[in-house]
Specification:
CATH architecture of the largest domain: Alpha-Beta Barrel
Helix content: 25-40%
Bound molecules: pyridoxal-5'-phosphate
Oligomer: single chain
Shape: globular
Strand content: 25-35%
CATH superfamily of the largest domain: Alanine racemase
Number of strands: 24
Number of domains: 2
CATH topology of the largest domain: TIM Barrel
């Protein structure tokens, strides 16, 4: 028997006939089903996790997270050897707890932060300041002061005005801040395409395009651009040590072409700084955004492929420009944390909604939703799901998993084939939720935020406690 595709299903979605059809690339490597058909995460049955910690529950596989962190470091180190070294900065905003920061640091990664709060968590984890970066397009004086006092590895400056602020703060403290400049190379990449443009219309970074009306010079096409002004200022101002250039061109990128193009542009700019100012900046950061599989339609490449393509592009551009290969850094976030995480929900109300004449869609409401996973609402993101607490074989039906919030857009999984038997009390597992779910979670409708539990070799450990109503009320001054 083969199930005919549902008329409302997207083309990429394959019909399913058994809960045993696990799409391996969506789940942590240590996911399995027991002989009875129950899903296990890190060796622990989901029913046990749900009973111990409640649902919704973020479960993260420590071994999977660590293996991905190691995988990026090893792949990029190997691809650029013996010419230069690579630092991998884990982009903490994807998923940051003190444990996660320690896992990344223990696997040899540095940590990128994007606010005082992320910096505080990373420091609380015991990560050495020299291994931390600070991003942000609107850093406060307090954030800059703290970063300079700590002597963190790098502040990634995002504007000309920020450089004077770093300089003033560092000078006052009698320190020198290591600074990188975030440039917008005119390459936007997302999924399978990239767009190359001369102009930039976004809040991040410093453009390479001269501002109209500024002085031009044939030898230096960048003169008068915010990026060039920032370089001159960073080189000429006290308290600032300019260590290199940075770019981050997008997210959920599968093809290396956009990264290659951006690397070429930054290397051209690096060579121009050398020629005009006689300074060879030692570092180049190529950002993050490496794509992961959220659904079966996504086909991410192994980090080795991206690393080799990028290393080839960097070597070629440096040869062409006649400069030596800088020290390289990258900033993966979702590609480390995303596939390591699975969210468990308990199914509640189900409804068959007639969408067109004779065509119905099954709605399954769960005990969480947009407060624990904002990505479907924010980005129209697609996810997948499986019935996790038992095995069911036979025709699956097109279903939509929705949350319990007061928004009709509160969708968790837009389209998925699930057994028609899914009913109240069943556990549903939504994979690839390790990144940008916990970190984007909210208290909308005053739902308490879920716990985060790490699993490893049959052991579970709470990383973040489930929020309680007491914790929510503690911020309300009308509560005695
Ligand atoms: C968010 C971010 C990253 C990580 O992006 P992912 O898509 O999670 O890999 C890296 N660098 C910067 C500057 C970022 O803002």
């Amino acid at each position: 028997m083969t199930t005919a595709p549902h008329p409302l299903a997207p083309e990429w979605l394959a019909a399913r006939e058994s809960t045993d059809d696990l799409e391996a690339k969506l789940f942590p490597a240590d996911t399995a089903r027991t002989t009875e058909g129950e899903l296990t995460l890190g060796g622990i049955p989901v029913s046990e996790l749900a009973a111990s910690y409640g649902t919704p529950l973020y479960v993260v596989s420590e071994n999977d997270f660590r293996a991905r962190a190691r995988g990026f470091r090893e792949a990029f180190t190997a691809a650029f050897a013996p010419d230069t070294e690579v630092d991998v900065f884990y982009a903490g905003k994807a998923f940051l707890t003190t444990h996660a920061a320690r896992w990344a640091a223990e696997e040899g990664l540095n940590i990128d932060t994007a606010s005082g709060g992320e910096l505080a968590i990373t420091l609380a984890a015991g990560v050495e300041p020299a291994r931390i970066g600070l991003h942000g397009n609107n850093k406060s004086d307090a954030e800059i002061t703290r970063a300079v006092e700590l002597g963190i590895g790098r502040i990634i400056a995002d504007s000309v005005d920020e450089i004077s602020r770093i300089s003033a703060i560092a000078s006052q403290l009698g320190r020198t801040a290591k600074v990188m400049l975030r440039l917008t190379p005119g390459v936007y990449a997302s999924t399978h395409e990239y767009i190359a443009t001369a102009h930039e219309d976004q809040k991040f970074g410093l453009s390479l395009t001269p501002v109209p009306g500024t002085q031009t010079e044939a030898a230096n096409p960048y003169l008068g651009s915010p990026a060039w002004t920032a370089v001159e200022q960073a080189l000429d101002t006290p308290g600032v040590e300019l260590i290199g250039l940075h770019c981050h061109i997008g997210s959920q990128i599968f093809e290396p072409a956009g990264f290659e193009l951006a690397a070429g542009k930054l290397i051209g700019f690096l060579a121009r700084i050398g020629a005009s100012r006689g300074v060879v900046l030692p570092e180049l950061d190529l950002g993050g955004g490496h794509g992961i599989a959220y659904t079966e339609a996504d086909h991410p490449r192994p980090p080795e492929d991206i690393a080799q393509a990028l290393a080839a592009a960097v070597r070629e551009a440096c040869t062409e420009q006649g400069i030596s290969i800088p020290r390289i850094s990258i900033e993966p976030g979702r590609s480390i944390a995303g596939p390591a995480g699975v969210t468990l929900y308990t199914a509640g109300t189900t409804k068959d909604v007639v969408v067109q004449d004779g065509i119905t869609r099954r709605y399954i409401a769960v005990d969480g939703g947009m407060a624990d996973n904002a990505r479907p609402v924010l980005y129209d993101a697609d996810y997948s799901a499986v019935l996790a607490d038992r095995r069911v074989t036979g025709e699956h039906i097109l279903s939509r998993i929705v949350g319990k919030h007061c928004e009709s857009g509160d969708i968790v999984v837009r389209n998925v084939y699930l057994p028609p038997a899914v009913t109240r009390g069943d556990i549903l597992a939504v994979p690839a939720t390790g990144a940008y779910c916990h970190s984007l979670s909210s208290n909308y409708n005053y739902l308490t935020r879920p716990a985060v539990v790490a699993v490893r070799d049959g052991q579970a450990q709470v990383l973040i406690r489930r929020e309680t109503e007491e914790m929510m009320l503690a911020r309300d001054t009308g509560y005695p």
